[in-house]
Amino acid sequence: MHSSELKGAGLGFRRELIPALKTQIPSVIDFFEIAPENWIDLGGATGKQLRSFTERIPFVCHGLSLSLGGPAALDEVLLHRIKSFMHQHQIQIYTEHLSYCSDHGQLYDLLPIPFTEEAVKHVAKRIRRTQEILRMQIAVENASYYVAAPISEMSEIEFIRAVLDEADCLLHLDVNNIYVNSVNFGFDAQAFLRALPGERISYIHTAGHYREADDLLIDTHGAAVIDPVWALLEQAYQSFGVFPTLLERDFNIPPLAELVDEVARIAELQQRHGHGRLAHHA
């Protein structure tokens, strides 16, 4: 399945959902997303099971541990393994977080990169190298974070724009992350969204979060999407056109039927605003 054919509404592929999905893949689900790190080493029956799905429906890879902003050397061994995995399953799209999650060892959280010119050059170089190895343009996701970046010479929007331009990569737009950050740091989510470079968007995430306090949201992907985040998704379609959009749900996973209702809501919004552009990765 070529990336230029990816469209519509998708769902994160979780092992808990496999029994229900083996019975039938609901027609509203146009594609699935997986974290390659969780599947690369799985052979035998589990590997065959995954293959039975990737042969029937498009998949996207969304990386968890490349740590594009991290100080340690880029994990090129992992990248080559991801490349082989994507080739094996005919997966044409790879995205990662615009953050870092390791130094000399995994930190198991996504941390903000300082918004500096030096950081732009550091991250962009690593993205360019990733694109060289994978032989494709990748997309990087705007991150949620809870502590302001330690040093800032520019705004988050300026930083995102600079990285995308310097690396010549695409934007993986996460509307829930914008909303979470807007509450935690007190800015206008819709204004932030409109300031993003729409011409770089290739793919969208939406998700739920946990409200720790009135001014502290935690990006858990463990709850239903709330109305202000649905409104942001609709704003994205109005401002930039319709892109393939995925519902993320990583914890507290409900029965498939509940998730399908949310995927159907994505599809309804896409229909309302026209199918629009398709993701295309060189």
Characterise this structure.
The protein has 282 residues and is an alpha/beta fold. The protein has a single domain, classed as TIM Barrel, CATH 3.20.20.150. The chain is built from nine helices and twelve strands. The chain has helices at 18-23, 44-54, 76-88, 117-134, 156-167, 175-185, 189-195, 227-240, 256-272, and strands at 9-12, 31-34, 59-62, 94-97, 100-103, 105-111, 139-141, 170-174, 201-207, 210-213, 216-218, 245-248. An eight-stranded parallel beta barrel has the order 1-2-3-4-7-8-9-12. Strands 5-6 form a two-stranded antiparallel ribbon. A two-stranded antiparallel sheet has the order 10-11. Helix 7 (189-195) packs parallel to helix 8. The longest helix has 18 residues, at 117-134. It starts with 8 loop residues before the first strand and ends in a 10-residue tail after the last helix. The model is unreliable at 101-110 and 276-282 (pLDDT under 50).
Quick recap of the structure?
The protein is of the alpha/beta class. 39% of the residues lie in helices and 19% in strands.
